[in-house]
């Protein structure tokens, strides 16, 4: 078997019987599990009986899943063909699935529902309105300021605004296949913007509103989008974010790099003030004015199942972010089906995903999956901590939320203020609690289950990625499906997870290894914008005897029951507060500062964020370390990437540990950052050009 992946080399496998303590796996990367795990023993928590008082369950127990899962992997074409036929197809497909994951056997590709024509927006809106559900509430807008009066949207109203906006885009010259960037706050108009693009076959590229002008411009240029949907700004908690100013700065950077942004459609979200932007004449229009005068009817563009639906940028281990491509038919079918089964989404439910549409979770579990299932949803513009840590639970009560889907980092942050803010609410409407973005440590799992859910609601710990498009491993809330706190448990229909050794050998039975997926599922990543080579070398570097694998970049342990325990990234990607950041990106940001000679960035276990950002900085000769410089480097990261990339620790490093060939030994830097520095942990340092560097770093640690 061929293995082309250098990143995998850092992983040391531990026998299956070991628990996740750093002592058990001396060279493995320290993760949140290592610090927070109190107990990863085989505790089994059944789906509470109270859940079945609220739901009939979509399947008849775990045995029904077992049977369906088997069918889905034995004959994926028959299985997914049947599922897909529940959607509207303007023209039928001629072939359900074909693929090649093995670069040596030719071009890597995945194709689902080839020849079929459909439109995701039509399936998410027109289909429901035509069936008489136009008056059902689609989006409940929960504003940043508690109690502010804002408009909620029915399905008919969403369809109306989507059609008008789609016509505005057409007037701006957007055609099928063009890429449109979206830089907006988390308000109903954000999913509306995405659906408007989908309606006319434009490929959307949503950029999270927390990114800087620099980061945004890179994504505009890479996607070649000349039309941008944005807003004047938004309040997130007490913080104003002036989105228009950021876009404006980004367009300047684009202009200098020879790409003119031709049109902005600007939503007004902030009250009139002297900060209200003056729009660029001839280029920009206010959203409300544009849609008011737009034609209210816009025919859908029938799309090929394999036409791209969207691009979403995500960090990798090296260099600039990659534009992950998803296509139309398979993504639609998979986002909808996972939404339905994982969250037990049924008529009358009110679904509340706290993720922003700037991330994949907001794509699949706000804009697409729930809408395709005709759910009512809460769209939350604010943050869980504003005005206080009881906000989420008051939202649950006020809108009678049935499922909440959030991230472990939010749960851990809320845990800090104890049970009080939770218990001040009733939460009786809740039937299921979801978690996503990083491993949930059993302590947080317990708190979520017992305190938030009053031990009545099952927990869906969902493992997946931007690249997988939808949930891959998660427990279903079914009779007989035991939950294990901290484990995402078993694969969704059609998903075949395998563990492989760094040499590319499959591990049978219990064990630990690199998590890979054999054979495609409908929303498999279809490519990386403009970079086929990167797509192949990142995701398909491993070939077995007969076929290749999709490589996830995560480590995973499988226990005796076949349950999966994700151990975290094995590459140079940091998962901080559920956000993926490449260490290389942060390093490039820091070294731009004229006083910096060299920088190395690693993740370290952080009690709230999961992983924090730790930067080793070597200054130019003669430059003194200072608080001003510290602040300047923080600003450098914010400016180049965004506030969420601000470092947690900056370590003034006289020198970095390097091999004789000049390669930085990150393994050692990770150990020092996590204060795991006894000789045993550090391992062999004799290959370093100057082993004394290690002692100096330990002595100068700001955490000491
Ligand atoms: C991590 C977010 C453990 C993992 C949907 C993955 C998780 C990366 C879980 C993808 C989970 C996500 N348990 N780890 N339930 N969910 N991850 O692309 O490391 O933003 O590779 O997609 O988050 O992050 P992304």
Automatic annotation (TrEMBL):
- The chain positions of domain Acetyl-coenzyme A synthetase N-terminal read 65-124
Q: What class of enzyme is it?
A: ligase
Q: What are the recorded GO MF terms, alphabetically?
A: acetate-CoA ligase activity; AMP binding; ATP binding
Q: What is its EC number?
A: 6.2.1.1
Q: Which reaction does it catalyse?
A: acetate + ATP + CoA = acetyl-CoA + AMP + diphosphate
Q: Which UniProt keywords apply?
A: ATP-binding, Ligase, Nucleotide-binding, Signal
Q: Does the keyword Hydrolase belong to this entry? A: no
AMP-dependent synthetase/ligase domain: from which residue to which, for each copy?
128-520
Q: Name one Pfam family in it.
A: AMP-binding_C
Query: Hey, what's the signal peptide range on this chain?
Result: 1-10
Keyword Nucleotide-binding recorded: yes
**What GO biological process, any one, is recorded here?**
acetyl-CoA biosynthetic process from acetate
Domain AMP-binding enzyme C-terminal, residue spans: 585-663
By sequence similarity, the record places it as follows: Belongs to the ATP-dependent AMP-binding enzyme family.
Annotated protein name in UniProt? Acetyl-coenzyme A synthetase
Q: What is the lineage of its organism?
A: Eukaryota, Haptista, Haptophyta, Prymnesiophyceae, Prymnesiales
């Amino acid at each position: 078997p061929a293995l082309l992946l250098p990143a995998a080399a850092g992983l040391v496998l531990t026998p299956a019987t070991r628990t996740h303590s750093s002592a058990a796996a001396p060279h493995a990367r320290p993760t949140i599990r290592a610090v927070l795990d109190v107990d990863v023993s085989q505790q089994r928590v059944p789906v509470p009986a109270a859940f079945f008082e609220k739901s009939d369950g979509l399947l008849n127990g775990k045995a029904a899943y077992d049977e369906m899962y088997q069918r889905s992997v034995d004959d994926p074409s028959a299985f997914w063909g049947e599922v897909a036929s529940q959607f509207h197809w303007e023209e039928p497909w001629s072939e359900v699935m074909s693929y090649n994951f093995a670069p040596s056997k030719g071009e890597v590709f995945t194709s689902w529902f080839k020849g079929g024509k459909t439109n995701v927006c039509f399936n998410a809106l027109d289909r429901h309105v035509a069936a008489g559900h136009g008056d059902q509430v689609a989006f409940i807008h929960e504003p940043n300021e508690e109690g502010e009066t804002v408009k909620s949207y029915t399905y008919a109203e969403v369809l109306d605004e989507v059609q008008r906006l789609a016509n505005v885009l057409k007037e701006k010259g957007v055609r099928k296949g063009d890429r449109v960037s979206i830089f907006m706050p988390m308000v109903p108009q954000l999913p509306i913007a995405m659906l408007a693009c989908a309606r006319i076959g434009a490929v959307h590229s949503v950029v999270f509103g927390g990114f800087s002008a620099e980061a945004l411009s890179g994504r505009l240029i890479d996607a070649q989008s000349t039309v941008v949907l944005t807003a004047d700004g938004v309040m997130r908690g007490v913080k104003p974010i002036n989105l228009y100013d950021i876009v404006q700065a980004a367009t300047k950077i684009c202009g200098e790099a020879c790409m003119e942004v031709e049109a902005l459609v600007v939503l007004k979200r902030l009250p009139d003030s002297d900060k209200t932007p003056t729009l660029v004449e001839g280029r920009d229009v206010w959203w409300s004015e544009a849609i008011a005068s737009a034609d209210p009817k816009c025919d859908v563009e029938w799309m090929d199942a394999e036409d791209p639906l969207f691009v979403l940028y995500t960090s990798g281990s090296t260099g600039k972010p990659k534009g992950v491509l998803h296509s139309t038919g398979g993504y639609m079918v998979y986002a909808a089906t996972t939404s339905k089964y994982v969250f037990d989404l049924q008529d009358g439910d009110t679904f509340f995903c706290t993720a922003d549409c700037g991330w994949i979770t907001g794509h699949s579990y706000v804009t697409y999956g729930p809408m395709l299932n005709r759910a009512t949803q809460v769209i939350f513009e604010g943050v869980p901590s504003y005005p206080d840590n009881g906000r989420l639970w008051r939202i649950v009560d006020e809108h009678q939320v049935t499922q909440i889907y959030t991230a472990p980092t939010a749960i851990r942050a809320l845990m800090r203020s104890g049970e009080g803010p939770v218990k001040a609410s009733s939460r009786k409407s809740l039937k299921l609690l979801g978690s996503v973005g990083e491993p949930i440590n059993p302590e947080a799992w317990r708190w979520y289950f017992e305190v938030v859910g009053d031990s009545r609601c099952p927990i869906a710990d969902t493992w997946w990625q931007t690249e997988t498009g939808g949930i891959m491993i998660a427990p279903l809330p079914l009779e007989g499906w035991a939950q294990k706190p901290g484990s995402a448990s078993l694969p969704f229909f059609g998903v075949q997870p395998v563990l492989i050794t760094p040499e590319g050998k499959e591990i049978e039975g219990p064990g630990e290894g690199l998590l890979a997926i054999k054979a495609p599922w409908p929303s498999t990543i279809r490519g990386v914008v403009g970079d086929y080579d990167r797509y192949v070398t990142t995701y398909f570097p491993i070939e077995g005897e007969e076929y290749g694998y999709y490589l996830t970049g995560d480590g995973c342990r499988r226990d005796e029951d076949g349950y999966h325990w994700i151990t975290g990234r094995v590459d140079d990607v940091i998962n901080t507060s559920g956000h993926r950041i490449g260490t290389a990106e942060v390093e490039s940001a820091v070294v731009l500062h004229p006083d910096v000679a060299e920088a190395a960035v690693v993740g370290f276990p952080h009690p709230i964020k999961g992983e924090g950002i730790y930067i080793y900085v070597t200054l130019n000769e003669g430059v003194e370390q200072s608080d001003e410089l510290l602040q300047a480097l923080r600003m450098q990261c914010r400016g180049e990437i965004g506030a969420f990339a601000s470092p947690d620790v900056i370590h003034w490093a006289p020198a970095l540990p390097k091999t004789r060939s000049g390669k930085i030994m990150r393994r050692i830097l990770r150990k020092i950052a996590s204060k795991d520095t006894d000789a045993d942990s550090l391992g062999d340092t004799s290959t370093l050009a100057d082993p004394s560097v290690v002692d100096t770093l330990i002595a100068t640690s700001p955490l000491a």
